[in-house]
Specification:
Number of helices of chain A: 21
Number of strands of chain B: 7
Shape of chain B: globular
Number of strands of chain A: 0
CATH topology of chain B: Alpha-Beta Plaits
Order of helices and strands of chain A: HHHHHHHHHHHHHHHHHHHHH
Helix content of chain A: over 70%
Number of domains of chain B: 1
Helix content of chain B: 25-40%
Oligomer: heterodimer
Distance between the termini of chain A: 51 Å
Strand content of chain B: 15-25%
Radius of gyration of chain A: 25 Å
Largest interface: A-B, 26 and 27 residues
Largest sheet of chain B: 3 strands, antiparallel
Strand order of the largest sheet of chain B: 4-3-5
Order of helices and strands of chain B: HHEEEEHEEE
CATH class of chain B: Alpha Beta
CATH architecture of chain B: 2-Layer Sandwich
Largest sheet of chain A: none
């Protein structure tokens, strides 16, 4: 690795902790970010000459903090500090204190707070994600814009707006109590899941560009789990992301069309990620405190464990979706469960299960895709065609539409005499 | 004499390597390993999964299972086992058996991500 490559990696890995601590000192996001930026520039100069510091984060916090204080002092000569600027004036410059704080559990809450301010409920999900990627992950605006398939200017504006909102939000800086900490943890977990989904729901032609979002979400999930080692839902979340991401190389064909689980080349699944995901689920299960992430991860695990599609334990998947339905009732969960039901009890039972969902899912692409598939299995081809047509009209990506078209083509072939099949 | 070489590094840092950086490091390491393997001097090589996948069994009475890696510094690493198990519970059972035979201290149970059996010619 070149000097700059490893310094980049060191800065990236130290960033959440360093910016989190700087935010605690300065209580202002822009000041904290600027301080980190300053420290990073100095690191680029100092580290190649002196070698890397043993604790990169502590180095960056110390240097960043001093640089920012110097700046405040410079400004103070020109204009007096506001009276209530307690956050800055009580800093002192006790270096021992920094070392002590880094060793303590403080930094855990620093990182959590940093992640948490990105999850402000008034921020739409896309802004939450953009903000987290900018502030916590340190991705450049250009990188984020690319992953979101928008212009750099638009992304810049989105992040600036989100920051303004966060600044008004007044997130408390005191060490959170147990209840508040667990609320923050849940909000942060949801945000990390959003980041992952933003990358995972990409269509075939953009999957490669958006893949970094999935990787970043996994990195953040692992970070969170390292801070909160005994939280089964964080284990579940991390496992879920790993198990889903393990399939990423097998999810699209050369033309960018989506390949369903049953048709994926399972030799292309990443076994290392699967192993890590399964290990985390094992750990989570021992707590006997089930939750939505753990259940979804357990479902993903059953798919991962099946060497061939026909080895899948659909019965168990049906049960797990049943549990998820109780915990998080949603027509989409029921729709997913119906797929398992169709494998265990046949398409008729599955169809019966999803009919009541029709009013609530009348604009949902997957509903009509799944419905069409059940109808097709039952030989009700005309009704299937209607469902598939509706699905295509509702498709969100070209890959989704292309996938349904494949079903329609199959319907066409099947409704013709045998020679059409023989020619295949 | 057999020597074990135990690898320590900052996990956050290694985890921040890009896939290319990681592959580059692994490739360089393989060159060194291949040389040893040809000489019949390379035993098993393992790359462990992240510490987030670790579980620790404190060998108290009764044994106590904790999430996460072994984090104390007052005990020293004295040895290791490589065992083949279907899941964490099986691995914990083995650890409990071992712990009953030799109480005190702790076992960190960590899944192995990459394993090369190797073979030392004796």
């Amino acid at each position: 690795m070149t000097d700059t490559a490893w310094i980049d990696a060191a800065l990236t890995s130290a960033r959440p902790q360093a910016v989190g601590a700087l935010l605690r000192y300065f209580r202002d996001l822009d000041t904290a970010e600027e301080a980190f930026q300053n420290a990073s520039l100095r690191a680029l100069k100092a580290w190649p000459q002196n070698g890397p510091p043993r604790d990169a984060a502590a180095w960056l916090i110390m240097v960043g903090r001093n640089a920012a204080i110097d700046e405040v002092r410079r400004n103070r000569r020109q204009q007096p500090l506001p009276e209530d600027d307690r956050a800055i004036s009580d800093l002192g410059d006790a270096e021992d204190e920094i070392a002590e704080r880094l060793d303590g559990s403080h930094y855990r809450d620093d990182i959590l707070r940093l992640l948490f301010i990105c999850c402000h409920p008034e921020l739409p999900p896309t802004q939450q994600i953009a903000l987290a990627l900018r502030i916590v992950s340190g991705l450049s605006v250009k990188q984020i814009a690319r992953a979101f398939l928008v212009s750099e200017a638009a992304m810049e504006q989105r992040i600036t707006r989100a920051k303004a909102r966060v600044a008004e939000a007044n997130v408390p800086f005191e060490t959170p109590g147990a209840v508040e900490r667990s609320e923050r943890l849940a909000a942060v977990a949801a945000m990390i899941y959003l980041i992952f989904n933003e990358g995972y729901s990409a269509s075939g032609d953009t999957a490669d560009i958006r893949k970094p979002l999935c990787e970043e979400a996994i990195r953040l999930a692992r970070l969170l789990l390292r801070l909160f080692q005994s939280e089964p839902e964080i284990m579940g979340l991390t496992a879920l992301l790993l198990l889903q991401h393990a399939r990423s190389d097998a999810r699209f064909d050369r033309d960018g069309a989506l390949i369903l689980l049953d048709d994926q080349d399972r030799s292309r699944w990443n076994q290392k990620l699967i192993a890590e995901g399964l290990a985390l689920i094992d750990k989570a299960m021992r707590h006997r405190a089930s939750g939505p992430y753990q259940i979804q991860a357990a479902i993903a695990a059953l798919h991962s464990r099946a060497a061939r599609p026909e080895d899948t334990d659909w019965q168990q998947i049906d049960l797990l979706y049943g549990a998820l339905e109780l915990m998080q009732p949603s027509p989409v969960v029921t729709l997913n469960r119906a797929v398992a039901v169709s494998k265990v009890r046949g398409p008729e039972a599955a169809l019966e299960m999803i009919e009541p969902l029709a009013p609530r899912l009348s604009n949902y692409f997957h509903f009509f895709g799944v419905r069409g598939a059940f109808l097709m299995q039952l030989g009700r081809n005309e009704e299937a065609r209607v469902a598939f047509d509706r699905a295509i009209a509702l498709a969100n990506t070209s890959a989704e539409a292309a996938h349904i078209r494949m079903h329609l083509d199959k319907l066409m072939r099947d409704s013709k005499p045998r020679d059409a099949k023989a020619g295949k | 004499m057999l020597y074990a070489i135990l690898c320590y590094h900052d996990e956050d840092f290694v985890g921040s390597w890009s896939k290319e950086q990681d592959q580059e490091v692994m490739k360089k390491l393989t060159v060194v390993q291949d040389k040893l393997a040809k000489q019949g001097r390379l035993g098993p090589v393992a790359r462990l999964l992240p510490t987030t996948a670790a579980t620790t069994l404190r060998k108290e009475n009764p044994p106590l299972v904790l999430d996460g890696p072994y984090a104390e510094t007052k005990e020293q690493l004295l040895g290791f086992y490589l065992i083949d198990c279907n899941n964490l519970d099986e691995a914990l059972d083995v650890a409990r058996d071992l712990g009953a035979a030799n109480p005190g201290g702790a076992y960190e149970i960590r899944p192995v991500g990459m394993f090369v059996p190797g073979g030392v010619a004796k």
